[in-house]
Write a structure and sequence with these properties.
Number of strands: 9
Shape: globular
Structural class: alpha+beta
Number of helices: 10
Order of helices and strands: EEEEEEEEEHHHHHHHHHH
CATH architecture of the largest domain: Sandwich
Oligomer: single chain
CATH topology of the largest domain: Jelly Rolls
Length: about 230
């Protein structure tokens, strides 16, 4: 639950996880052009994203695990990767979403708002059983800090590389290689905020070396990590 008592601009790094956002007061503009729907879904993102939260904006965010969003949607996650769309476009039920928006706006406190969204999400589940193979693949890619080869992952999971790629994209929204890249970037960003030097960040995040880390970070964000983290949040 996040509230913005004044105008606030922020920048979000690329991310492997999908998010459902339920705005109940005010408005948010995405990348300087798109107003976020009241009930919005954002898939995994490979590039930087900016938000401008207008005066009084209040939003409840539901963060999905890498394999969790697929149990909620009726379409493959790769169809919404990198975009923010109206939740009604994805799952239908526009009347229920309008009623939920009204209930969130008038709810007596945040605990009640959280309960309302949890009830809606649970009632919307299409499949409550995560894909076991892709769950194992995600865990394998997130485990440790060394670079991991996709052909090794395919052998570990027991699928051909092409079958793994198709299934992984459908469930998580991105390819295994891109997922591994985004996971490294997330680890590096977390380490960077602790004040660790770039050599340590690169090594502990699974990059070949410092120059490889800087190159991948610049490709994802448009700037070097040292310059990026000197900017306001």
């Amino acid at each position: 639950m996040i509230e913005f008592p004044s105008l606030y601009r922020d920048t979000h790094l690329p991310e492997t996880d999908a998010v459902a956002a339920f705005s109940f007061r005010g408005a948010c503009q995405i990348d300087g052009t798109q107003l976020a729907p009241l009930a919005a879904f954002t898939g995994p993102r490979e590039v930087l994203r900016t938000h401008e939260h207008r005066l009084g904006h209040a939003v409840l965010l539901a963060m999905f695990t890498p394999v969790g969003a697929h149990a909620f949607l009726r379409s493959p996650l790769n169809e919404v990767a990198g975009s923010t769309v109206s939740l009604a476009e994805l799952i239908g039920r526009p009347d229920e979403l309008r009623r939920l928006s009204e209930q969130l706006n008038t709810a007596e406190n945040h605990w009640r708002r959280i309960a309302l969204v949890e009830q809606f999400l649970l009632a919307s589940l299409c499949d409550s059983t995560p894909d076991a193979l892709i769950s194992a693949a995600v865990a394998w890619l997130e485990r440790g800090t060394t670079r991991r080869r996709i052909d090794d992952l395919a052998r570990y999971i027991g699928l051909s590389q092409s079958a793994l790629e198709r299934r992984f994209r459908r469930i998580t929204g991105v390819s295994p290689k891109k997922f591994a890249s985004l996971a490294r970037l997330r680890r590096a960003a977390q380490l960077q905020t602790t004040g660790a030097d770039l050599t340590t960040v690169a090594h502990e995040s699974g990059y070949f070396d410092q120059s490889h880390f800087i190159k991948e970070f610049r490709r994802a964000t448009g700037s070097a990590p040292s310059a990026f983290f000197r900017r306001p949040a």
